[in-house]
Design brief:
mainly alpha, 7 helices, single chain, 6% strand, 53% helix, elongated
Length: 197
Amino acid sequence: MWDVFARFALGAIIGHFMIRIPTLFFPRMYTWNDQFPPHPDPIPLNPYLTQRVLHMRKFYWMSIVFAIVPLFFGYNSVKYGASDLGFGLWIAAGWTVLSRITALVSGEDAPWTMNMAMEIQNVINKCDSSESCCNHPRPMWEVTSVRCLTCFAVLLNTPRPDLGRPRKDGRIKGLIRLLITDGKPLVAGNIELKEEE
């Protein structure tokens, strides 16, 4: 009984992991992160950040394609004898694909969206214009929101999701955290926004 459960759990873990390979590994190459400060420091708003949000969005939806691998091996495992392992692969991969397609149809946001990239770019454009929050704006994306380091005004009340930087909490802990959160921020945005003067 326990060996069946162990093989099922192993299949589910492998399926859950394989689907998330694009967001877990692709953006964490060091050559992809030269322009960003190390995790978990705030990130300055610039075109590289806008591009990174778009890349993370692409990797997130690319995971549906990666689901083909565990679904294929799950099908063959069920067909040729290791049904407990195969069901684990099928349930983890199928559930993730189904939940993401359902979220897309219902309009629920992914951790990274086109709207998020546009909002970041709008803050950059506003800080470069006469409508900036102060004379020398320095917009930084902190854990809970985008704030100006000069005048401390909250410019965008959006919590920071995972942005693909190598994590300071280590590969194993960071990997487990990302598998649990799926890249979503762990905190809510600021409740009160500073009034514009």
